[in-house]
């Protein structure tokens, strides 16, 4: 295990001062993940499968919990407690998951605690072109799972979220206020 971790802003001396949680939060924030999405997930014995590691389908749930945490925060920023309640209840304009792809990097076993995180982005075709416009009806959300025991990212995902009008049962343009809030979250970190 390294004795220190260097980020752009901080140096952490692991053996002396930094807990696995602090290290994870610092590293993931530095990588641009939105702190409003940070979701701690304790691994329980029942998360294991016959192959003696956390079953791959469990990660879909872990990402879902973090994504909902992030969505609630975004809804609150856009329209306060009422928008938050409406988004969670599927009233008016909310978000719906269109697709998710998961890249399993390392197996996780009990005991462990994971930090599951997300950050919105414009999509892989926009990585070199930061001037690309945000699509009006959807966006991309990158996720990661950090293992406190392994002190690294163990799983990543990429999702497409669609703005959806639950009253009309159709995808929609969420309006300028939502786009501004989303763009602001795309500028976090690296």
TrEMBL record:
Report which superkingdom the organism of origin falls in.
Eukaryota
Q: Enumerate the Pfam families for this protein.
A: 4HBT_2
Which InterPro entries would you find in this protein's record?
A: 4-hydroxybenzoyl-CoA_TE (IPR050563), HotDog_dom_sf (IPR029069)
Name of the protein this chain belongs to: Thioesterase/thiol ester dehydrase-isomerase
Recorded GO molecular functions are: fatty acyl-CoA hydrolase activity
């Amino acid at each position: 295990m390294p004795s220190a971790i260097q980020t752009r802003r901080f140096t952490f001396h692991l053996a002396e001062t930094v807990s696995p949680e602090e290290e994870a939060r610092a590293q993931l924030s530095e990588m641009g993940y939105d702190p409003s999405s940070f979701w701690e997930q304790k691994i329980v014995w029942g998360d294991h499968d016959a192959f003696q590691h956390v079953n791959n389908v469990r990660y879909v749930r872990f990402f879902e919990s973090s994504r909902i945490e992030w969505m609630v925060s975004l809804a609150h920023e856009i329209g306060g407690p009422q928008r938050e309640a409406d988004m969670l209840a599927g009233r008016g304009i909310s978000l719906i998951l269109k697709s998710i792809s998961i890249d399993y990097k390392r197996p996780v076993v009990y005991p462990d605690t994971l930090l599951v995180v997300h950050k919105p982005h414009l999509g892989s075709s926009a990585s070199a072109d930061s001037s690309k416009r945000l699509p009006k009806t959807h966006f991309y959300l990158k996720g990661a799972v950090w293992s406190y025991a392994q002190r690294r990212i163990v799983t990543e995902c990429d999702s497409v979220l669609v703005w959806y009008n639950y009253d009309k049962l159709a995808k929609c343009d969420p309006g300028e206020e939502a786009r501004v809030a989303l763009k602001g979250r795309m500028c976090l970190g690296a």
